[in-house]
Amino acid sequence: MSFKIILSVLAGIGVGYFILPSEILQYTDYILDIGLCLLLFFVGIDIGKNKDVLGKIKKIGVRVLLVPVMIIIGSIFGSIIAGFILGMPANESGAVGAGLGWYSLSSMMLATYSSRLSALAFISNVTREIIALLTIPFISKYIGDLESVAPAGATAMDTSLPLIAKSTNPQTAIIAFISGVIASTSVPILVSFIIKI
User: Fold this and answer.
1) What is the per-residue pLDDT for 30?
2) Cα separation of 47 and 42, whole Å?
């Protein structure tokens, strides 16, 4: 699966550079939204076919919230440690990590604080999403299904969800969606709070 992702990105770069006119760029947001909605629709169909999944999620109960909470804590503390190694203030590195992979929002929020920090948030959160897309199948296969949700962060509810669903099982896909919703909701609150500390 990771090879297909890399091949798709390379093919997209080639088509964008050599074939498509630049005027098409004004429509890419619409095309991406349609493609993402189609992906999520088919993930939903796959989950819906497994009727016992929702019952399993109900049995897990409130413990399902531990997944996004641990992902958020790990992301923020991991970025603070990385910032310490790089000589960055804890609030800046923590705010970058609090983006949880949502590169467009976190970089825009931090732009008012510093253009350097905004660029760092964009690069690190884009890199997180790319790493997630490359590693989810391997983590699922060699470590565990639930663990494969962690690299996705906020993208577990959208761009990473189809890959998580394909690499794991319907129960993990639902947990990933819940985790992504909670992480995405947390991003604006955490980034603005941590940067002001």
Assistant:
1) 79
2) 9
**What percent of the chain has a predicted confidence (pLDDT) above 70?**
91
Closest by CA position to 148, among listed 131, 127, 126, 132 = 132
Look-up of token digits 């989950």: 47
- Closest residue by Cα to residue 75 from 43, 18, 10, 121: 121
Contact assessment for residue 121 and residue 95, using Cβ atoms and an 8 Å cutoff:
yes
Residue 162, SS3 per DSSP? helix
Contact 132, 153 (CB under 8 A): yes
As a whole number of angstroms, the distance between CA 144 and CA 169 comes to 11
Identity of the residue numbered 61 = G
AA identity, residue 36: L
DSSP 18-78: HTS-GGGGGGHHHHHHHHHHHHHHHHHHHHHH-TTHHHHHHHHGGGGGHHHHHHHHHHHHH
Give 44: exposed, middle or buried? Use CB within 10 Å, 0-12, 13-18, 19+.
Answer: middle
Interatomic CA distance for residues 98 and 70, integer angstroms = 12
This prediction's pTM: 0.78
